[in-house]
Amino acid sequence: MKSIFAVAVLAAITLAAPVAAAPHDGKDFIADYDSNSDGQVTRAEFDAARTARFAATDANRDGWVSDAEYLAEYSARLEQHLAASGLNAEKRTEERQRQTRQTHVRFGVLDTDKDQKMQKAEYDASGARAFAGMDDDQDGTITAADVAAVKVKQAAQAAQRAATADGATGGVN
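Above: the chain sequence. Below: its structure as tokens.
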């Protein structure tokens, strides 16, 4: 039971952290979901993009997404990001491997009923959490101000975790 809890905690931390090729950090989030190029993302824009992405990910049109379909859709975005990243071939390979492992972890977390089928409702629940986490002032629109505020909060949380970990080890690494 403890190992299941540990995996769940690790997965939650992983999902909360910015991911290089996924639009989970502010700048990429806005760029990915801002359909009218006004520099902000409304909930309607976000929901429309997520609905389209789910439909595109469900390659065989059976109404749910498999781990393989989820990985295939993400891999296409990852490759675009890696191509533009300026990383050397070795670093791109390392990042590709790391991101692929994390994609399987994310799928496992998002598949809340553990039936190996990500239903639209499971996908939508994840999206709702992501949007809420980026919408710092909770006004239904994600702006550069929201992004900046979230970044500050994430940095403070990371510093707190580091200080807690340092205290637990007595400052010995």
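The first strand starts at residue 41 and ends at 42.
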